[in-house]
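Input sequence (125 aa), recorded before submission:
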Amino acid sequence: MSLSDTIKIDVTTRYLKEQSDPFTRRFAFAYTVEITNEGSESVQLLNRYWHIADDSDHVEEVQGEGVIGKQPQIAPGTSFKYTSGTVIPTEVGTMRGNYEMLSASGEKFKALIPPFLLAIPHTVH
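Predicted structure, token format:
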């Protein structure tokens, strides 16, 4: 089993109606990510990469150090959970990406973030 297989990533999303304005094509979403270390050694999240696509095929790529200003250490059998957000110009979009991780033994690897949907309620069946 590779190190990337030991990291489980779950994402939930929420439409932020109060921060959105359909008339100006601004649709805000919060996403909560839970990163679980199912491996046998501690890992540290170093960097993030996001691929954000809206419904008109516009893509925004976001890269940076850590998440929400942190580079968390995640011990075996524990999780790190955080909430962040994004704004897109359409009612529906998708996000996917990866986290660059560093194992306690010094190996860098990528943990894939599976694609997830951004959609205002009742737009996707």
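Checked by second reader. The chain is about 0% helix and 60% strand.
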